[in-house]
Automatic annotation (TrEMBL):
Catalyzes the methylthiolation of N6-(dimethylallyl)adenosine (i(6)A), leading to the formation of 2-methylthio-N6-(dimethylallyl)adenosine (ms(2)i(6)A) at position 37 in tRNAs that read codons beginning with uridine. The lineage of its organism: Bacteria, Pseudomonadati, Bacteroidota, Flavobacteriia, Flavobacteriales. It comes from Planktosalinus lacus. Residues 24-141 form the MTTase N-terminal domain. SMART domains: Elp3 (SM00729). It is an enzyme of class 2 (transferase). This is tRNA-2-methylthio-N(6)-dimethylallyladenosine synthase.
Amino acid sequence: MEKVIDEKKQGTKLVMDTVAGNTKKLFIESYGCQMNFSDSEIVASILSENGYNTTNQLEEADLVLVNTCSIRDKAEQTVRKRLEKYNAVKKTINPSMKVGVLGCMAERLKNKFLEEEKIVDLVVGPDAYKDLPNLLSEVEEGRNAINVILSKEETYGDISPVRLQSNGVTAFVSITRGCDNMCTFCVVPFTRGRERSRDPQSILEEVNDLAAKGFKEITLLGQNVDSYLWYGGGLKKDFDKASEMQKATATNFAGLLSLVAEAQPKMRIRFSTSNPQDMTMDVIETMARYQNICNYIHLPVQSGSTRVLKEMNRQHTREEYIQLIDNIKSIIPDCGISQDIIAGFPTETEEDHQDTLSLMDYVKYDFGFMFMYSERPGTLAARKLEDDIPEAIKKRRLQEIVEIQQKHSAYRTQQFVGKTMEVLIEKTSKRDDNQWSGRIPQNTVVVFPKENYKVGDFVMVKITDCTSATLMGEAVGYSKE
Ligand code: SAH
Ligand code: F3S
């Protein structure tokens, strides 16, 4: 069978060119985290083997799939609006169209979509995509279909994802699925199940394959990558029951990083997300040892108050987090660091909020992702704590956090002005067709005149100016072949 040739992303719709012989049309959209986008590539790969080509025209689709996010109420509302839109098209233009919900909302709401709401034909949880061909035959025979069973094994290690949203330069490679941390605000452990790691050999195969196809940068993906542990398969929580032999030959995250960095020394290696409680000195030292592991860590803190961290069931204090930042900066002085912070978690006082602001002042993050607390049904926080911070206060605190972050981002980008940094070119700048856009190892975006360089080149760029989010500069030559 002819394989995918040119792949492109259009908005959040994922499109690839046609596979010869396929007659059915799939419209697939993704919301939420990078893992969802990565999973949609797996889904498209499975369905391309089963007669489907992707389309970006909703109206002509035989099958519409939406890969959904439950992390905050707003994310679910966005998906609901899309479902209304699909149903309007179904009623007016395309009555034979089938609609399926994938991902975290499928897992969280299960049968509700089919029984109470009657708005979809198919509900498939994040571990059940291999069952899609079976589920679709049921749908074609006129029955609704559902599979929301969560798995104990890494689920898709043997499927080679089609790179739907690809620039041909950067790609995501998933290394763990699920999460065992049970942060009290978070719905992920319920929607994505228990934590399990993927066989390092299968990870290496995917990375080598990407390198052979010309990709220059990979991001190892997991809810909590530092907790990666391969001991021959099975859940992380069952590691204690493993044999002595399995324990002695297990691979942890630092081990996996070295394997990947050594396998492809010319590729940039990134990873996301790190949980402070699991990030070891070993990982930091491994980052320092390999030049091709990018000096950048996304290190969500959620709150700067030890009391709130405890309520959130984060397994570290403010002081331990600061110690970790100090360790990172002493071993990798130029390491870029970013944050996730939640404003207005239940019981958060003005003093707790000030602790968050002062922690930010200490770290001076390069950038961050900041959210108002959104109560999620079924989580420990929803069951045990009243959502007691008024909306107006949540908003004001979030605004203060965002403002401080903007100040710090501007401070960080300013530090690069005058320096010459390595940039991997990813695409044409959104604002100017004559400029390239790429990133430095610390993950900050750089734009600079195209000259004769091309997408995928590693270029040394002299930084001449900046905003709080973007560096501007001029290329001074190639960095490596
Ligand atoms: N470990 C995960 C975290 C997933 S959720 C990862 O790989 O990124 C991403 C971020 O969403 C969290 O770090 C947290 O800051 C935010 N978040 C999660 N649940 C939330 C909630 N109920 N309300 C507001 N923000 C939330
Ligand atoms: Fe959620 Fe905490 Fe895991 S934020 S994904 S439960 S590390």
